[in-house]
Amino acid sequence: MVSAPQPGGPEAAPITLPQRLLDSLSNDPQSPARVWLAKLPELVAHQLRGWELTLERVPSPGGRSSLIVLVRQADGTPATLKFPAPGPYAGHERAALAHWNGWGAVHLLRDDPESGALLLERLHSAVSLRSLPEAKALLEAAGTVRRLWVPPAEGHPFDSVATRTGKGVETLRLIAAGTWAADARPLVDEALELREELSGQTPEHLLLHGDFRQGKVLAGERAPWLAVGPTPLVGERAYDLAQLVLDRCEDLAAGSGPAAAARRRVAKLADSLDVDRDRLRGWTLFRAVEAGLRHAAVGDRRRGELLLEFAGWL
């Protein structure tokens, strides 16, 4: 058990880090994330004291790349204390949330650059758009994501879509070279050609969520629905919307005529947000192939094959 005392002395109940987080980040003993995990209990205790927060609980199973702690502020207001894992984009969530300033996204109350801690308004973590029927969920998702698409701040730290997607091209080629991926190679080739074409003629320069899907939109008090957990970058809306097209793809696969249903979803979302259909189809195919190969490479062949099948429908 990895734990830290609550403010109040060594007799206080410990904080236990969720097993999902430990499993996700503990594989490489030399990883900066492994070192961070060892220091995390102390960081949590320090932040609770420094910001005069009262611990409520650590939600479980929690996330794979950050620790979430439910707390109350000195005035009794509920809040969420978040510690994102270290990495090349560790400070980007803070920068994006500060720029949105609560418009369409969870409100950043305060942050600590030294520890990376973020104090966020408390949302209803158990109620996401995935709790709604699909048609209603897509409508609410579209209304939420359009608020996030604003010009980035001057001197922002975010990658462009071209840069972010370009960094993974060689890795995708290596994964696709595996014997098991032989049937997927024509799709991989098409996906990489589309990425090259779409990246070379970006029509927009907007701040994007980066990982926008129904599970990343939670119910709130200040607004009905607010986005959380961005991996922000800058580029065109079609790239951001592609992840939403892929949402609940297992539901489409279980229904009749999944290929036609997938193409209808592309058309409906593109038209509702005034996004070019062909560009949305292209980025959706690329993101489906990219995610499918990565899932399959880490052993989740079922999810990987479903995403590759979805790409084939397009």
Automatic annotation (TrEMBL):
Keyword Ribosomal protein: no
Highest taxon listed in the record's lineage: Bacteria
Coiled-coil regions, chain positions: none
Entry keyword set: Transferase
InterPro entries: Kinase-like_dom_sf, NH2Glyco/OHUrea_AB-resist_kin
UniProt-recorded Gene Ontology molecular function terms: phosphotransferase activity, alcohol group as acceptor
Gene Ontology biological-process entries: secondary metabolic process
Cleaved signal peptide residues: none
UniProt protein name: Phosphotransferase
The organism of origin for this protein: Streptomyces bingchenggensis (strain BCW-1)
Recorded name of the encoding gene: aph2
